[in-house]
Amino acid sequence: xxxxxxxxxxxxxxxxxxxxxxxxxxxxxxxxxxxxxxxxxxxxxxxxxxxxxxxxxxxxxxxxxxxxxxxxxxxxxxxxxxxxxxxxxxxxxxxxxxxxxxxxxxxxxxxxxxxxxxxxxxxxxxxxxxxxxxxxxxxxxxxxxxxxxxxxxxxxxxxxxxxxxxxxxxxxxxxxxxxxxxxxxxxxxxxxxxxxxxxxxxxxxxxxxxxxxxxxxxxxxxxxxxxxxxxxxxxxxxxxxxxxxxxxxxxxxxxxxxxxxxxxxxxxxxxxxxxxxxxxxxxxxxxxxxxxxxxxxxxxxxxxxxxxxxxxxxxxxxxxxxxxxxxxxxxxxxxxxxxxxxxxxxxxxxxxxxxxxxxxxxxxxxxxxxxx
Amino acid sequence: xxxxxxxxxxxxxxxxxxxxxxxxxxxxxxxxxxxxxxxxxxxxxxxxxxxxxxxxxxxxxxxxxxxxxxxxxxxxxxxxxxxxxxxxxxxxxxxxxxxxxxxxxxxxxxxxxxxxxxxxxxxxxxxxxxxxxxxxxxxxxxxxxxxxxxxxxxxxxxxxxxxxxxxxxxxxxxxxxxxxxxxxxxxxxxxxxxxxxxxxxxxxxxxxxxxxxxxxxxxxxxxxxxxxxxxxxxxxxxxxxxxxxxxxxxxxxxxxxxxxxxxxxxxxxxxxxxxxxxxxxxxxxxxxxxxxxxxxxxxxxxxxxxxxxxxxxxxxxxxxxxxxxxxxxxxxxxxxxxxxxxxxxxxxxxxxxxxxxxxxxxxxxxxxxxxxxxxxxxxxxxxxxxxxxxxxxxxxxxxxxxx
Lengths: 372, 403
Known about the structure:
The complex is a heterodimer of chains A (about 375) and B (about 400). Chain A is mainly α and about 375 residues long. In chain A, about 45% of the residues lie in helices and about 5% in strands. Chain A contains 14 helices and four strands. In chain A, strand 1, helix 5 and strand 2 form a beta-alpha-beta unit. In chain A, helix 2 packs across helix 14, helix 4 packs across helix 12 and helix 12 crosses helix 14. Chain A is elongated, with a radius of gyration of 25 Å. The two termini of chain A are about 25 Å apart. The relative contact order of chain A is 0.15. In chain B, strands 2-3-1-4-5-6 form a six-stranded parallel sheet, sandwiched between helices. Chain B is globular. The mean pLDDT of chain B is about 90. The interface between A and B is medium-sized, with 31 and 33 residues.
């Protein structure tokens, strides 16, 4: 049996849903004219098969994919033929770094996103004629959920700002949600590098305006007066302030899912224009990632130990300044701005991101057809 | 007329910027001779390459959306010869190459592949310098270690070999193209007539007999060792604060290309003796491989063999600080001059803005404007007034729409 016959046998095995690693594979198949798929392609397919039955359409998509961006070229399988002395050395695919599989897989995920129909959006509820006018600011994730709740009750924000509701969370969560809002559409560096810049900046607003809560609150206070700026520490307390009801936001995406979102959005930058990329990310890819996160128990971004002291000090400074300014406070005391101790601090490993990717590809793959 | 596509896929640092600028500036003349150079901006084909390869490039990729499909369509519609040229194509993966060739009409269309090549001993320092001009901060020593790692595990190494390993590039791109349609253009050795490289390109592209304007500005000039070191130090200081859209005009163009590359007399970048020996051995193997393949060689494959004696090596990681300081003074001088130019533009625009504001103020002083302003303010202060204003604005926007 030649190395090539063994390799084509493995291609057939994987295309049929097999999960045997290359080094343990001993079968064979007829050698085809076409070039062999790359080691990255075959290993990603094996990981997909190990998770669930891979639909035929997804098999084809993975085997034909071109890895986006910079990284390893298409690598040959070790033991197939003698290395000609040039080109990247052949590899045992199980030894490939997870980052390379993620790189290839994000390209596939991006292709699926571009081809996916945009989910229909419910018609907006007609705004009530007589309603409180208000504006929302603060934590972007909580504010978005409150905005959705109130808009669904015919009470969208807008108009002359009778009240300004500032949705507040503990400072760890606030920073993570500000980063996540941007990571979810890919326009930000990695979490820890972003925090590094934030810590080095003279003012957090230089790096991310939404990270600087105090500047935002005081900006509104100077426009509408301190008494009309309401600090809201529990999302459920926001609705009654403007005549509606609000609930806690749904669960957040894990750090690993957000990393994958960042990579996918960067890949999409070359495929679609900015507005469409944001739409695809928010309305298509986030749904897949949410599904991929379900039950995986992966953590949201956490403040690493080296930034602990700085973030705690920022939180105390914010609490003291807001207390001194004298804004109305709802849903708790401003001590809730202080981060809870014992939060998770390590970022996601490449294998965590790969795990989310594999599950997201299965969610995203066309549902028709079984394995070939 | 034979429909033909000439696809120049690299390699970098082989006079490609010059060639592309000649083709771009003369695209009108070329078209009258049945030759299409499809581009509406000088970097149009670069954007097409980014699009094909889904390659992020410091934010430029967002301008590349759909560029490859548009270029390929122009080529498919053109009845004569089309020329496509960009060196980043050298990095393309097999799936991207299959797509590119299919989009260009291969195999029904006669596709010619062109690869321009220069000896590895000159390419190695040139590639490090390109990395530095693209914001990288690693030392030359680190770069040499990365590219000599047999596993090629880093992105730097995989990019270097992806765009410089001649037999591999030709295998990837040329797998389905007959060898006689694969043209290897060699960059002449130093000391050759300055027009020789263009003559080789012109012969390959089939434009040798045409009267073209060869006096172009865009080139990718090289820097000395000390100047590259200075640039690397600048990168370390500014990478976090200067975004790519400002880095390109201020650092790469103004400092590197227009200022530091003009300095003469400082030692050029080269390779240490051990790297020279390693590169010479590799080059011999490549030349042997290429000569077996039956490609059309335009020039001489011996151009790709480094000189037997290694050149004098000036380590850019341990530069003469006096030379770096002199380069830094030139850089400061260039930045000050640019600052003066921008301040003059700012003052001019400030003057224009003041004129506009004065005109606007005069219009506000008309009695009818002041009356209307007061009326709107009074209406907006009461509930009934607000309702009237809302009705008026709705009616006005309806009449605007119907108009």
